[in-house]
């Protein structure tokens, strides 16, 4: 067993490296002729010859040694191949091998031993400035730092609240598997985090883990300072960007684009958000937030249903008010969201507004557009102004949606709303949190269901009475 890896992408990258450097069989077996992978040096040749068992076994052993961290022979072999390729003027091949060496240096050689056990750990730290928070996540696997991730977004509540909320939401993403232990800086409510995540949450006091915590804080600061520098350049790079975006979709020049994104935690407190860009610039006065009626009409995790609801509400209102319609609608996600939006516009509202899906790659970064009846993938030049605008729009609508969701979730969260109710202590709050997930579900639950958790009838009645007496949420838009 080798791993675990911090996410699917890291495992795939390692597999691709092994296929290039330690080829086994990439084809379906004997074909009577060499396969394409054999010509590329990524197959032992089982496609056209009998591979000796010893040759295959030796290759397996080399792979095992590499995965266990013994990379000296691999580096020496690759260095020799790179030098031969350069000597023979095969510069593209030499560059490819150079990248493979770089992969080893970045993922294996520089992995410092963090502890003396193989406990899987995720380490979180942050830096805040000018209303923005920058977060670093370090993934520690087999006592080594295997991967890093970073996130940046504006702060709505306190830095502590935003940071704790981020950690909890981080593990709701399907590719992020909970480790055996989470490491955080001082000043957080480690016990509450541990109770909700159901894994230990600790603050390192000394040694390599504390040094790593300081490094994560420093990296967070550097990332945020880089972000501020890019923000200063934003206004200088949008001229012609909207024109490029429309031209890539083979559409006439337009001025207004509206983008939508959804946010929820496993279907709880689902929201949508809409941002509007005019001639490549955000028109923040026209941004809109939507609390979705998922509890009444559909599952909050149903992206198609969420899309239909928000598109129906947005453009029914614009039609009613005879307000101008956008020249382009962008849906964060892909085919499901794009087709759901088109269905409502065309078949319910009789509107002809172009809709494109904003597609992300395995690194959760902007990659391309999905457009047209055949769901054609439109790739933009990553160095173009049009791509830069698309990236800004996707980042902005995601930020706006997730910020609104954090506000709503904090308002509705059991941990905050149940505090102060007589008879409802920390253990009872934890039981309620695990069973009901949301305030609305507690309100709707029969007293008997609440009492099944070991809560007395008197406390259950007081609980429902306190929650029912809460003020009605702000009106919908």
Automatic annotation (TrEMBL):
GO molecular function ontology, one term from the record: excinuclease ABC activity
Swiss-Prot/TrEMBL GO biological process terms: nucleotide-excision repair; SOS response
Q: Name one GO cellular component term.
A: excinuclease repair complex
Highest rank taxon of the organism: Bacteria
Q: Which InterPro entries match?
A: RuvA_2-like, UVR_dom, UVR_dom_sf, UvrABC_protein_C, UvrC, UvrC_RNase_H_dom, UvrC_RNase_H_dom_sf
- List where the protein spans the membrane: none
Q: Which Pfam families match?
A: HHH_5, UVR, UvrC_RNaseH, UvrC_RNaseH_dom
Give start and end of each UVR domain. Answer: 72-107
Keyword DNA damage in annotation: yes
Q: Which PROSITE patterns match?
A: UVR, UVRC
Q: Residues in domain UvrC family homology region profile?
A: 123-345
Q: Which UniProt keywords apply?
A: DNA damage, SOS response
Q: What is this protein called?
A: Excinuclease ABC subunit C
What organism is this sequence from? Lacticaseibacillus paracasei subsp. paracasei Lpp123
Q: Which gene encodes it?
A: uvrC
């Amino acid at each position: 067993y080798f791993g675990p890896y911090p996410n699917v992408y890291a495992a795939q990258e390692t597999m691709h490296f092994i296929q290039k450097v330690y080829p086994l069989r990439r084809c379906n077996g004997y074909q009577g002729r060499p396969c394409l992978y054999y010509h590329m040096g990524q197959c032992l040749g089982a496609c056209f010859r009998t591979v000796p068992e010893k040759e295959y076994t030796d290759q397996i052993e080399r792979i095992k040694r590499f995965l266990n961290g013994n990379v000296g022979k691999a580096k020496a072999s690759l260095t020799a191949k790179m030098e031969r390729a350069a000597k023979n003027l095969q510069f593209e091949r030499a560059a490819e091998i150079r990248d493979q060496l770089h992969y080893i240096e970045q993922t294996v050689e520089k992995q410092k031993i963090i502890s003396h056990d193989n406990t899987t750990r995720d380490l979180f730290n942050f830096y805040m400035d000018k209303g923005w928070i920058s977060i670093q996540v370090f993934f520690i696997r087999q006592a080594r730092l295997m991967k890093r991730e970073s996130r940046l977004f504006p702060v709505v509540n306190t830095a502590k609240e935003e940071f704790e909320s981020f950690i909890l939401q981080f593990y709701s993403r399907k590719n992020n598997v909970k480790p055996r232990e989470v490491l955080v800086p001082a000043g957080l409510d480690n016990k509450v985090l541990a109770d909700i995540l159901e894994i230990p949450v600790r603050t390192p006091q000394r040694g390599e883990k504390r040094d790593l915590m300081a490094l994560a804080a420093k990296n967070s600061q550097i990332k945020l300072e880089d972000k501020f520098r890019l923000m200063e350049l934003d206004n200088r790079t949008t001229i012609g960007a909207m024109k490029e975006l429309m031209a890539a979709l083979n559409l006439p020049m337009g001025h207004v684009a509206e983008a939508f994104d959804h946010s929820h935690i496993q279907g709880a407190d689902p929201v949508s958000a809409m941002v509007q860009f005019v001639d490549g610039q955000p028109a923040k006065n026209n941004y809109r937030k939507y609390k979705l009626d998922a509890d009444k009409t559909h599952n909050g995790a149903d992206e198609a249903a969420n899309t239909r609801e928000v598109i129906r509400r947005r453009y029914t209102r614009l039609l009613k008010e005879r307000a101008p319609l956008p020249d382009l609608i962008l849906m964060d996600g892909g085919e499901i969201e794009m087709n759901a939006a088109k269905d409502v516009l065309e078949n319910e509202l009789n509107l002809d507004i172009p809709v494109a899906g904003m597609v992300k790659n395995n690194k959760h970064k902007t990659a391309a557009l999905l457009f047209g009846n055949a769901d054609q993938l439109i790739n933009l030049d990553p160095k173009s102004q049009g791509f830069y605008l698309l990236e800004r729009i996707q980042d902005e609508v995601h930020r706006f949606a997730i910020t609104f969701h954090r506000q709503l979730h904090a308002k509705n969260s059991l941990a905050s709303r149940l505090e102060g109710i007589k008879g409802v202590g920390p253990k009872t709050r934890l039981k309620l949190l695990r069973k009901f997930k949301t305030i609305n579900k507690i309100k709707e639950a029969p007293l008997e269901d609440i009492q099944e958790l070991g809560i007395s009838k008197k406390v259950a009645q007081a609980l429902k009475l306190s929650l029912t007496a809460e003020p009605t949420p702000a009106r919908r838009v």
